């Protein structure tokens, strides 16, 4: 679990944003979203294929 230290004179909102960014970078939020509900293997393949296609078209 990523940790952040609140700096002296730092706004709590900024600290929360830093924590959220760090969680997103580490993939914790994505992992939680994936585990929210069961996804059939065929749906997983379809989602991955769609993601790869988006990435391919982007570049």
Report on the structure:
The chain is built from 3 helices and no strands. The chain is mostly helical and 59 residues long. The protein has one domain. The chain is elongated and about 50 Å long.
Quick one: biggest sheet?
Answer: none
Number of domains: 1
What is the N-to-C succession of helices and strands?
HHH
**Count of distinct strands:** 0
Q: Please give the alpha-carbon distance between the first and last residues.
A: 33 Å
Please state the overall shape, judged from the principal axes of the Cα atoms.
elongated
Mean of pLDDT: 89
Number of helices: 3
Structural class: mainly alpha
Low-confidence stretches: none
Roughly what percent helix?
Answer: 55-70%
Strand residue content:
under 5%
Rounded to the nearest angstrom, the radius of gyration is 17 Å
């Amino acid at each position: 679990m990523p940790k952040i230290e609140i700096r002296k004179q730092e706004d709590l909102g900024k600290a929360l944003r830093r924590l959220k960014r760090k969680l997103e970078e580490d993939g914790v939020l994505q992992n939680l979203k994936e585990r929210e509900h069961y996804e059939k293997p065929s749906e997983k393949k379809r989602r991955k294929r769609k993601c790869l296609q988006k990435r391919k078209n982007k570049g």
